[in-house]
Design a protein that fits this description.
Length: 349
């Protein structure tokens, strides 16, 4: 319902319904994704707060058991609520493998290794997939599991190293597996809407895989060619630098960063006057005058990354062009990992 309004969060009066998945209305994708997040968080807190870490991991296992036992997609159970914007287009199988992989990493429990071995082939382990997104976890799972092969020479995970190489090679111009598209200015281009989500997630995976390779003396194999971790790091850095302003338009696609950045961001709270500047209520339909205004957003949404330019490096700084000017958490989230990598390298070097 809130899509029918253009209003500030302080003024929102549309229904804020809460939905759940259950045994009768399963949602293996959203449940297994939750289990993956809990398991990953348990690793973060393992040293600083062991009891909390244990609680996170135990909960992850319970949630994963629910996801696996009651299989089905959340967009089948909640179709009218999540579709068409957030249907599970890739299905729930990739999330089950993603969840099991994170719990295996966090727990080193061999039952999850057995689960991955027994179920991997039906959950996407054999698929070469060339995008990593909020919906499709296959490429990320391959990279995650390749760490076990690289570190421990776990032969069961050799397959995942090969698939990770295929994903990486698809991004490197000149290899036999190359299939990506780049703009004239050098930006990875996959889709006309919110393209930077694929750029930030690809950069994140490139750097994660580079870290795994460099820690274990490995290389990415692309047919008869091999590429060291430095090549992957360099490719990712070009994408990060492009987003931050090293591009033909000299435009930073992170709002509030650099000398030139998007001023007409497709974001309600940013585009409407604040409650301090305009204390009176702005009703559902009255906000559209601000959506359609040519004026810059009065509230700078510092740090948000927008959808980005088209395949010719052109960017319309237009609030109504949501394909290019809308920010999203799934654009920003992988970018945090990428800049953390380079920040760490700067510190250590």
């Amino acid at each position: 319902m809130d899509h029918q309004c253009w209003e500030r969060p302080e003024d929102m009066d549309t229904p804020r319904n809460v939905y759940k998945v259950s045994t009768q209305n399963p949602g293996s994708d959203v449940a297994a994704e939750t289990a993956a997040a809990l398991a990953a968080a348990s690793i973060v807190f393992k040293d600083s707060d062991p009891s909390y870490s244990k609680q996170l991991l135990q909960t992850a296992m319970k949630v994963f058991d629910f996801a696996d036992r009651y299989r089905g997609s959340y967009s089948d159970s909640l179709n009218s609520v999540v579709c068409p914007f957030y249907c599970s287009y890739s299905g729930y199988q990739d999330e089950l493998l993603w969840g099991a992989s994170w719990i295996h990493r966090a727990s080193q429990n061999r039952s999850y290794l057995a689960y991955i071995q027994s179920n991997g082939h039906t959950l996407g382990a054999d698929d070469d997939d060339y995008s990593f997104s909020w919906d499709d976890k296959r490429a990320g799972t391959k990279v995650l599991l390749s760490k076990d092969f690289l570190e421990k020479n776990t032969q069961e995970f050799q397959l995942y190293k090969a698939h990770s190489d295929n994903y990486i090679c698809s991004l490197i111009p000149g290899t036999s597996s190359f299939q990506a598209q780049y703009t004239p200015g050098g930006l990875l281009y996959k889709a006309s809407a919110s393209n930077l989500q694929y750029v930030t997630s690809s950069a994140f995976l490139l750097l994660t895989y580079a870290k795994y390779l460099s820690s274990n003396g490995g290389v990415a194999s692309c047919g008869t060619s091999t590429f060291p971790a430095e090549k992957l790091t360099s490719l990712a850095k070009k994408q990060v630098d492009y987003i931050l302003g090293n591009n033909p338009a000299k435009m930073s696609y992170m709002v509030g960063f650099g000398q030139k950045y998007p001023l007409h961001v497709h974001h309600r709270g940013s585009s409407l006057p604040s409650v301090h500047a305009h204390p009176d209520h702005i009703a559902c339909n009255n906000g559209f005058q601000y959506l359609n205004s040519g004026s810059p957003n009065p509230n700078v949404l510092v740090g948000a990354i927008v959808g980005g330019p088209d395949n010719k490096d052109n960017f319309a700084d237009d609030r109504n062009n949501y394909q290019q000017s809308e920010p999203a958490t799934y654009i920003n989230a992988p970018f945090v990992g990428a800049v953390a990598f380079f920040s760490g390298k700067t510190t250590t070097n």
